[in-house]
Write a structure and sequence with these properties.
This protein is of the alpha+beta class and 154 residues long. It has a single domain, classed as Gcn5-related N-acetyltransferase (GNAT) (Aminopeptidase), CATH 3.40.630. The chain has helices at residues 19-30, 34-42, 96-110, 125-130; strands at residues 10-13, 57-62, 65-72, 79-87, 115-120, 134-141, 144-152. The chain has a seven-stranded mixed β-sheet with strand order 1-2-3-4-5-7-6.
Length: 154
């Protein structure tokens, strides 16, 4: 699909009853990368969105279908953590992820944060760099090495 060939209708907060569908979207998005499949399938809890956090999830829909979402946690030490950002595989590289980062930045600013932070897997590094994040260190996750990244907000 060409970038932004279909314009998102809206970005909105997720409804509690969408939690399982969002977990399905996260699973499809995560399983795109072969090197993570085995570990993700062995740890399905990694895909779960806690019920108490669904109220913080923001979704992008196109023609009424949810094609991506982000979950940004409340600020801590001046930064909001991007706990999840996932796009349907057939919508990757269409601008949906960039739109989600923009929305996450706006939400973080509204909550008084001065930065967004994320632990990115090596496959996501180029995406996060493209939208303005900079690597600030490395961390070990249960799925292997991760890159700590930070996006200063205005």
């Amino acid at each position: 699909m060409d970038p932004m060939s279909t314009t998102p209708d809206r970005i909105r907060f997720a409804e509690p009853e969408e939690r399982l569908a969002l977990e399905g979207l996260q699973r499809r998005s995560s399983l795109v990368w072969e090197e993570y499949r085995e570990a993700l399938l062995a740890h399905p809890d990694a895909i779960e969105i806690p019920e108490e956090l669904v109220q913080r999830v923001r979704v992008v829909s196109i023609a009424g279908k949810v094609v991506g979402f982000h979950l940004v946690l409340t600020p801590h030490d001046g930064a909001c953590e991007v706990d999840g950002l996932f796009v349907e595989p057939d919508q990757m590289r269409t601008g949906v992820g960039r739109l989600l980062v923009r929305d996450a930045s706006e939400r973080a600013l509204e909550e008084g944060a001065t930065a967004l932070e994320v632990t990115a897997n090596p496959r996501a590094l180029a995406f996060y760099e493209k939208v303005g994040f900079v690597a600030v260190g490395q961390v070990e996750t249960r799925f292997g090495p991760g890159i700590r990244m930070r996006l200063p907000l205005r």
